[in-house]
């Protein structure tokens, strides 16, 4: 029997980027799901974080459903599962928070070096050679900045995906698995990042063109599209020999064994 952690069917031969948006509307309630997700995201303006966590938990259920149905179906958003969504989102949220706390200081140390060291070299070269060196350095600065951003993105993508699938904080930090995912999927991750960036800009412009109303749907569409892209990447990763993420082990409930039965009383009730 297939489970949410044991994908069935054949993986796509290559990334199907536009399908990550098309699949949303294959569900008859696609627009309603987008609206409800959009309202949750909008609620963060009044109650921070909670709405995003709810949508994150819902996308985890979408990911599990896509894996169990070969990408054919995903569940409707259900407010009755509010607490379930929150429970599913807590581990990837904590993993992303800790990773950000670790990576942000490193970025703050690296970016100034990337920018100020070339500027110092150009200044020290004098008025004649300085501008020439600066012209040469500017493209290098841009390339290094992009490289740093891509490196962070390529580390966070498998880390958060593993946290979503494993539903565990410690299990998410399997650096060997993360390294394997990057090695097998780096091309797809780069293309996915570019596609999401460009499509997000396009949806944002459409949302602004509709007096901001479309932004409610645009944010939700990006969340759901990212989920399908994660599903595709994971399936291709498995097809290339990557190790599946084991599910979180849930302890079996302890059922007490039947103890010795007390013998029936020999006499009547003394208090009767």
What features would you describe in this structure?
The chain is mostly helical. It has one domain. It has 8 helices and no strands. It has helices at 19-22, 30-42, 50-68, 82-124, 126-166, 169-172, 175-209, 213-239. Helix 3 crosses helix 4 (82-124). The model is unreliable at 1-6 and 251-260 (pLDDT under 50).
Outline the low-pLDDT stretches.
1-6, 251-260
- Rough outline: globular
Radius of gyration: 26 Å
Helix content: 55-70%
Query: How many discrete structural domains?
Result: 1
Main sheet properties: none
Number of helices: 8
User: What is the count of β-strands?
Assistant: 0
Order of helices and strands: HHHHHHHH
Give the distance, in angstroms, between the N- and C-terminal Cα atoms: 59 Å
Q: Give average pLDDT, whole number.
A: 82
Q: Structural class, from secondary structure content?
A: mainly alpha
Quote the beta fraction: under 5%
Protein name: Glycerophosphoryl diester phosphodiesterase membrane domain-containing protein
Organism: Pirellula staleyi (strain ATCC 27377 / DSM 6068 / ICPB 4128)
Keywords: Membrane, Transmembrane, Transmembrane helix
